[in-house]
């Protein structure tokens, strides 16, 4: 029985992508060398199909961290080093899990603040440059967060300079931690608006789910539901590992 070959369109249809995506995979070194028939047409094998499936799983947006790690994973698989590809896959899974831990910790920090627990040891009021130094952020960051509605800073009645006190520092620490852990300013604003309205019961959920009645007003990006995205990315990392494992079984000599 002869070997079954696939066309570019066959691989594209199997993965649900454009044929140009398959061509890009070939040009980028994500597939093993592709022989051509006597008619000059490419002859993709099952090996190429599985390599393309791995590239599609690993490289589509979103992903955590530097894409280079995932590119090396796919290229090692294309070069036949599935053991190295598996090592990269587990490194990536660990990275996703670390990001998820950071996000969960930020949400616990938020809930502690929302419960009214003191976040700072009542620092004396500070002007913006002192506040930025105290929080180890830039003045521009503080101004940007205020400009985006995340907080309102009282003014010194004598000179109208901003005065940051204990309440502002507590709120700013929550904002800073959420930003550092990947949550978008839009998601944080949505959560803080709910907090300011007196509803402190489901702040965690409000960071992930835009109100349905206002959904048309929001551009919903990955960072607008970051924790849910991390759960999805962890699942995809597991799928990458499973795909490499399947390739090792199908192509043991690879």
UniProtKB/TrEMBL annotation:
Q: May I ask which residue range the UniProt record assigns to the signal sequence?
A: none
Keyword terms of this UniProt record: DNA-binding, Transcription, Transcription regulation
MF terms (GO), sorted A to Z: DNA binding; DNA-binding transcription factor activity
Give a single Pfam family match.
MerR_1
The keyword Ligase is assigned to this record: no
* Domain HTH merR-type span(s) in chain numbering: 128-194
Q: Which InterPro entries match?
A: DNA-bd_dom_put_sf, MerR-type_HTH_dom, MerR_fam
Q: Does the keyword DNA-binding apply?
A: yes
This one is known as Transcriptional regulator, MerR family
Which species does this protein come from?
Answer: Ktedonobacter racemifer DSM 44963
């Amino acid at each position: 029985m002869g070997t079954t070959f696939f066309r570019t369109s066959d691989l594209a249809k199997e993965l649900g992508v454009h044929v140009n995506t398959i061509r890009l995979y070939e040009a980028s070194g994500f597939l093993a060398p592709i022989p051509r028939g006597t008619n000059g047409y490419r002859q993709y094998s099952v090996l190429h199909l599985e390599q393309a499936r791995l590239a599609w799983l690993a490289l589509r947006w979103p992903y955590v961290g530097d894409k280079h790690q995932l590119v090396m994973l796919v290229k090692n698989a294309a070069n036949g080093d599935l053991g190295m590809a598996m090592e990269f896959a587990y490194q990536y899974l660990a990275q996703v899990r670390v990001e998820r831990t950071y996000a969960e910790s930020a949400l616990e920090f938020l809930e502690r603040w929302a419960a009214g627990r003191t976040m700072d040891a009542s620092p004396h009021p500070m002007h913006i440059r002192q506040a930025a130094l105290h929080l180890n952020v830039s003045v521009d960051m503080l101004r940007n967060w205020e400009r985006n509605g995340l907080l309102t800073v009282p003014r010194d009645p004598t000179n109208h300079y901003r005065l940051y006190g204990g309440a502002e520092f507590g709120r700013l620490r929550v904002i800073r931690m959420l930003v550092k852990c990947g949550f978008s300013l839009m998601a944080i604003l949505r959560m803080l608006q709910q907090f300011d309205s007196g509803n402190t019961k489901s702040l965690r959920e409000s960071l992930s789910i835009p109100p349905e009645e206002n959904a048309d007003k929001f551009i919903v990006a990955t960072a607008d539901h970051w924790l849910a995205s991390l759960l999805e990315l962890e699942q995809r990392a597991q799928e990458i590992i499973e795909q490499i494992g399947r390739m090792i079984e199908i192509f043991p000599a690879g």
